[in-house]
């Protein structure tokens, strides 16, 4: 039934993924009390620093917050292509 609606209204997987990403950003904002811009700035800063030491796949880079009881943790998924040997 949902497939029928998807075909009739022209929704594709790309728009579904965009909607999921927007919802994820709203949830992250609520959990961490960070604005979406602050979250994006944090992600960019992490990419900049980590890129000094490693070649990373920034397309697969994800940053999120996880809550466990009263504690909150920053969780980052960073696909590493290779470690840079001469960083200093």
Automatic annotation (TrEMBL):
Function description: Prevents the cell division inhibition by proteins MinC and MinD at internal division sites while permitting inhibition at polar sites. This ensures cell division at the proper site by restricting the formation of a division septum at the midpoint of the long axis of the cell.
Source organism, top-level taxon: Bacteria
UniProt similarity note: Belongs to the MinE family.
NCBIfam families, alphabetized: minE
Pfam families given in the database record: MinE
One GO BP annotation of this record: regulation of division septum assembly
Gene coding for it: minE
Name of the protein in its database record: Cell division topological specificity factor
InterPro entries: MinE, MinE_sf
Transmembrane portions of the chain: none
Organism of this sequence: Sulfobacillus acidophilus (strain ATCC 700253 / DSM 10332 / NAL)
UniProtKB keywords: Cell cycle, Cell division
